[in-house]
Design brief:
Blueprint: H1 44-57, H2 78-89, H3 95-100, H4 104-127, H5 131-136
Length: 139
Amino acid sequence: MLPKAILIIGALPLTPNGKLDYRALPVPIAGARDSAECDPPRSALERELAEVWQELLHVERIGRQDHFFELGGDSLMTMPLMVRIAEKFGVPIHVSTILTNPILCEMAADIERLVVDSARNVAVALDATPAWQEETGPP
């Protein structure tokens, strides 16, 4: 198990008895990062995918080099992610795509390829003339 957030503080707060004061510890914010760390999404597709991640992971800022699983995603979140991607972009995505390309820009590139391939397949299907029409002409 990996922690969702790590917070570095100067010193641990202590009670008057010298014990750790758990109530005085600051609460880490999951997904909080330095603004310099976040390389913002570049394309429209990356921005839309980042919005999906924000909704699922409850993280404010998503950068194009962010890793889905390092931001708090887990195997149980892959199914809702697949469903939202299919709804938003109109292409089904396989769980292996999420597992092998969990970085936002890489996942966006895979989705873009799927969208282009899907459009190409539809165009080929629409342009295909049945063999019976080629031989005999229109009925």
